[in-house]
């Protein structure tokens, strides 16, 4: 399948994003095991068992991630094996990037993942996320701290804008659309 919406210069960045944020066990495939590992890294079963608030948070994460995983499989699992490989994911991203170029919005099913990821973090105020909180969120995605901080400074215009979910969503849109090499939006993945 041709990927007319993904510039060749973005293939490496998108491959790194797949490997670091989705393929948690580095087996070249994304499956439910990867999502379970992501949930465990955000709120462990042990922590959830000791704290009612964390138990609710974990349950919500599981629900959101299950929905996202099955939605991802529905649109991207071309061979219906219950896994998403890099080629299948790039095909999905081609469609998502095409939608971003046309309408500047993510498909609803994909936006749900970003909301779940954002809300799974312990922010002092999710309407004004601090730089270190943002960096910690991205570090949990295996993005280095320096790249996270540079991205935060860029998207918030060095703190002039408050980082909330809307700005985070805008950041993710710009991440996927950006074609400029070594730009802070690339999170050091290029």
Please provide a written account of the structure.
The protein is mainly α and 190 residues long. It has one domain: EF-hand (Recoverin, domain 1, Orthogonal Bundle). It is built from nine helices and two strands; from the N terminus they run αβαααβααααα. Strands 1-2 form a two-stranded antiparallel sheet. It is globular, with a radius of gyration of 16 Å. GO terms for molecular function: calcium ion binding. This is EF-hand domain-containing protein. Keywords: Calcium.
What's the mean pLDDT score?
91
In whole angstroms, the N-to-C terminal distance is: 23 Å
Helix content: 55-70%
User: Unreliable stretches, pLDDT < 50, 5 or more residues?
Assistant: none
User: How would the global form be characterised?
Assistant: globular
The portion of residues forming beta strands comes to: under 5%
Number of alpha- plus pi-helical segments: 9
Number of strands: 2
The value of Rg in angstroms is: 16 Å
User: If strands are numbered along the chain, what order do they take across the biggest sheet?
Assistant: 1-2
For CATH, the homologous superfamily is named as EF-hand
Largest sheet report: 2 strands, antiparallel
Class, according to the CATH hierarchy? Mainly Alpha
CATH topology-level name: Recoverin, domain 1
